[in-house]
Amino acid sequence: MTAIHPQPRPHSRIHWRTPITMVILLGILAGGGWWGWKSLISSSAEQTCVEQQLPNNRLVPKQVVLNVYNGGARAGSAQRVADALKKRGFNIGKVANEPKGNKVDVAELRGATANAPEITLVAGQLNQKAVPVPDSRTDHTVDLVIGAGFGSVKLKGLPSVQVPPGTKVCLPVVHSTQPIPSGQNPN
């Protein structure tokens, strides 16, 4: 005789080995991903600046890396200012709109400290007074943010800035856009 109703299956033991293994493997994967992300965003493969004693105790434009940002000025103003400062010897890093979208009235100079020599040198190139904004950056680059009230750079800017004798200055690492021939010293 056959049963009209299906017979229940006998209860089998639950096998926990597979789900436990999966949870452990997912934990290892998540931990590796977290460690990799932290390593990626917090490490720097190269130095951002090099401590140096300046010849003649003077900081010159070729030793400064300058980013020029448009913070409310006419389109193309940042590029025009960057081109003028590049002709004076500054190493131009980025030319773009202000990264955070902030607007400034005239000009802001962002750098390691308000009285850093690199800030003073860039300020000596401008016709208007720029507001110094210290942000404790470690690479000693300078950001010039120009606003709607910015006019132009001076016809003759400061050629150099005096630093106290014996003072070591952290100068940004300047990356050349041209390859260095083998066997030659990049400095």
Content-based structural category: alpha/beta
Computed Rg: 29 Å
Multimeric organization: single chain
Number of helical stretches of at least 4 residues: 3
Strand order across the largest sheet: 4-3-7-5-6
Strand content: 15-25%
Total DSSP E strands: 9
**Main pleated sheet:** 5 strands, mixed
Instruction: Bin the helical content.
Output: 10-25%
Uncertain spans, ≥5 residues at pLDDT below 50?
none
Task: Walk me through the structure.
This protein has 187 residues and is of the alpha/beta class. 24% of the residues lie in helices and 22% in strands. The chain is built from three helices and nine strands; from the N terminus they run H-E-E-E-H-E-E-H-E-E-E-E. The chain has helices at residues 17-42, 77-87, 117-123, and strands at residues 49-53, 58-59, 65-70, 91-97, 107-111, 131-134, 142-146, 161-162, 168-172. A five-stranded mixed beta sheet has the order 4-3-7-5-6, covered by helices on one side. A two-stranded antiparallel ribbon has the order 1-9. The longest helix has 26 residues, at 17-42. The mean pLDDT is 83.
What is the structure about, briefly put?
This protein is α/β, with parallel strands linked by helices. About 25% of the residues lie in helices and about 20% in strands. The protein starts with 16 loop residues before the first helix and ends in a 15-residue tail after the last strand.
